[in-house]
């Protein structure tokens, strides 16, 4: 198999340790060696990519994605897109994520029953580029809950982006349907949402319905995710073993104690970007800061900052991602979450990057081979023009994402690589092409 060396880079390996200058050797789709300067491995390579001093980090994982959210200002606009256009939208968005260095993603919910599954299958088959992807169901919701958009004179559930259930048997049927379609996990809405006119503190799902969901999911070996803003809904996640907890804004001390006691089982993807952007950056779409405060989002942001800060201090795994795909927070700007983790949760920049890399590998259920730059790990790598530890916001700038490698294959590269033999020849000749990304290849 061809060996590729990435040289002359500052390496953030995802462990949380100090950045170091060095080189990475890749064979096939795996990292086989990592050298710290002045040690060198370039002589073992067939191809060399000169990083020119850039920052190299593991590919990031977005832990709460909605690829089918279509950058519109309303929930209704999401569902009204016809299915043919909708899957094409998802394909375009998947490439957008990969271009920005998100090499893995968790599908939090699809707007239509099979969108996530079809997209995941297309990515895996190589029909379109995108993050390695775990597909979610539609949002399973109760009658009148978040996701139920039916009207009294138009009682057509297919017009809702949620799959509406009422009672345990309807929950059982929903789980079996989505399992038949091929989802990786089920999603249920355990709390409300202000923008839908339902208090975030509300917990509308009965214990019997949750038991049915989790029992059926386990029967088929599926994980469960939950929209859980209220404190009670977070406790329901812990009581019933729901692994993926989305939001958790109003978690009280009892909920925090429960999460901490089970922190090796649960992940929290809070979607703090939604609270920040909706509170302060949605005026163009009718949600001024004053309107957002009236809706309840300013109060929720304050509560979330406090509860998430406590989670982080307690060692509960908090990861970036959530609800990007609205007009005031379009897909591709997801790395804003990392700066918000610093500003609102109190993480250091290094901790924020760990949450997107090492913890990302864990939420993908591949923590032993994803999310770090270590021998034996899959070569999902991102090269950045600049130092994110000094300014995390550069990860939102497409031009600063200089290279994206997924599974050992370069997906995006602003400068060409060259065969090792060509690099050696150019070096000996003093060719100025060396200044455009080709490094001298000499024996180690």
Automatic annotation (TrEMBL):
Pfam families: Amidohydro_1
Record's signal peptide: none
SUPFAM superfamilies: Composite domain of metallo-dependent hydrolases, Metallo-dependent hydrolases
InterPro entries, sorted: Amidohydro-rel, Metal-dep_hydrolase_composite, Metal_Hydrolase, Metallo-dep_Hydrolase, OTAase-like
Gene3D superfamilies the UniProt entry points to: Metal-dependent hydrolases, Urease, subunit C, domain 1
Superkingdom of origin: Bacteria
Annotated ranges, domain Amidohydrolase-related: 55-409
Listed PANTHER family: ALPHA-D-RIBOSE 1-METHYLPHOSPHONATE 5-TRIPHOSPHATE DIPHOSPHATASE
Protein name, per record: Amidohydrolase family protein
């Amino acid at each position: 198999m061809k060996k590729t060396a990435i040289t002359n880079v500052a390496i953030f390996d995802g462990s949380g340790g100090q950045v170091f200058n060095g080189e990475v050797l890749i064979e096939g789709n795996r990292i086989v060696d990592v050298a710290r300067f002045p040690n060198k491995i370039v002589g073992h390579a067939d191809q060399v990519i000169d990083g020119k001093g850039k920052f190299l980090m593991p590919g990031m994982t977005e832990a709460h994605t909605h690829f089918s959210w279509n950058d519109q200002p309303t929930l209704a606009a999401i569902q009204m897109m016809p299915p043919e256009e909708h899957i094409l939208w998802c394909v375009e968005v998947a490439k957008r994520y990969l271009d920005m260095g998100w090499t893995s993603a968790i599908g939090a919910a699809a707007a239509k029953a099979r969108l996530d599954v079809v997209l995941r299958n297309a990515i895996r088959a190589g029909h379109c580029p995108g993050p390695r992807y775990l597909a979610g169901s539609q949002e399973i919701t109760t009658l009148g809950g978040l996701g139920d958009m039916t009207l009294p004179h138009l009682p057509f559930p297919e017009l809702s982006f949620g799959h509406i259930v009422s009672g345990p048997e309807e929950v059982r049927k929903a789980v079996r349907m989505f399992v038949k379609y091929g989802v990786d996990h089920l999603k249920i809405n355990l709390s409300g949402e202000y923008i839908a006119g339902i208090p975030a503190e509300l917990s509308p799902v009965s214990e019997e319905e949750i038991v049915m969901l989790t029992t059926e999911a386990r029967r088929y070996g599926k994980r469960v995710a939950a929209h859980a803003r209220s404190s009670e809904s977070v406790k329901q996640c812990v009581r019933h073993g729901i692994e993926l907890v989305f939001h958790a804004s109003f978690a009280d001390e009892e909920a925090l104690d429960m999460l901490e006691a089970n922190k090796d089982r649960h992940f929290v993807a809070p979607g703090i970007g939604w609270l920040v952007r909706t509170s302060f950056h949605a005026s163009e779409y009718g949600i001024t800061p004053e309107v957002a405060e009236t809706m309840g989002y300013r109060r929720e942001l304050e509560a979330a900052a406090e509860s998430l800060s406590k989670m982080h201090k307690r060692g509960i795994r908090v990861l970036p991602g959530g609800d990007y795909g609205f007009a005031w927070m379009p897909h591709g700007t997801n790395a804003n979450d990392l700066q918000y983790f610093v500003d609102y949760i109190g993480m250091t920049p290094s901790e924020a990057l760990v949450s997107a890399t090492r913890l990302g590998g864990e939420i993908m259920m591949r923590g032993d081979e994803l999310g770090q730059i270590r021998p034996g790990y899959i070569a999902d790598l991102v090269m950045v023009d600049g130092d994110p530890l000094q300014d995390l916001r550069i990860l939102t700038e497409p031009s600063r994402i200089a290279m994206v490698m997924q599974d050992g294959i370069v997906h995006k590269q602003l400068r060409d690589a060259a065969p090792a033999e060509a690099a050696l020849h150019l070096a000996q000749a003093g060719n100025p092409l060396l200044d455009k990304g080709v490094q001298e290849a000499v024996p180690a």
